[in-house]
Design a protein that fits this description.
Distance between the termini: 8 Å
Number of strands: 3
Radius of gyration: 12 Å
Shape: flat
Helix content: 10-25%
Strand content: 35-45%
Number of domains: 1
Pfam family, one: DUF4264
Strand order of the largest sheet: 1-3-2
InterPro entries: UCP036698
Oligomer: single chain
Order of helices and strands: EHEE
C-alpha cells in the first residue's frame, strides 16, 4: 500500500524541533508510524510537521 499521510500541522520553527521528530521516529517505527518535518514554503518562520503510516 505504501506510505499514507495521516495528518499535517504548521508550527512555529524552533531550533530543537528536529529532536522531537527524531525520537518519535526511533520509538514508533515498529508501530508503522513515521514523522516528518519540513520548512514551510510560504513562511520561513513556520515548519510543517507530518505524520505518516507506513
Amino acid at each position: 500500500m505504501g506510505i499514507q499521510l495521516i495528518a499535517t500541522v504548521k508550527i512555529t520553527a524552533t531550533p530543537d524541533l528536529y529532536k522531537i521528530v527524531d525520537i518519535l521516529n526511533k520509538n514508533l517505527k515498529y508501530d508503522d508510524l513515521m514523522f516528518g518535518l519540513a520548512k514551510d514554503e510560504e513562511d520561513p518562520n513556520l515548519m510543517v510537521f507530518s505524520i505518516y503510516r507506513t
